[in-house]
Amino acid sequence: MIVYYDGVCALCNRFVRWALRRDRRRRLLFASLDGESATRLRRAFPETRDVDSIVVRDGDKVFVKSEALLRIAQQLGGVWRLSALVRAIPRPLRDWGYDRIARSRYERFGRLDSCPLPSPEQRDRFLS
What we know:
Layout: E1 2-5, H1 10-22, E2 29-32, H2 36-44, E3 55-58, E4 61-64, H3 65-76, H4 91-103, H5 105-109, E5 126-127
Parallel strand pairs: 1-2, 2-5
Antiparallel strand pairs: 1-3, 3-4
């Protein structure tokens, strides 16, 4: 499973670091939405061309916004699987909440000058 994220968003980078710490089975790979891997994603899945928030690719399927976050939580296992209960909330309502945070993410959490480099131990988890 590949997690595509906004590489200059401070909130997104914190989320990636959070997920890396909890992904003990090393099931997740990460890629910036500005990289080559994201370019290939957008060619293969045209519906992701205008998406500037989190995207998850799992095989031949893609998920965005709140559903992407829930897919990540499922992969983390353990107590994070309980997040599936959030699916009881209709997706339009979940995505509305997601969009409210996403629209103000730079103002609330900051914007980085460039996408941070992963540590040497984590470098194999990141795609260009």
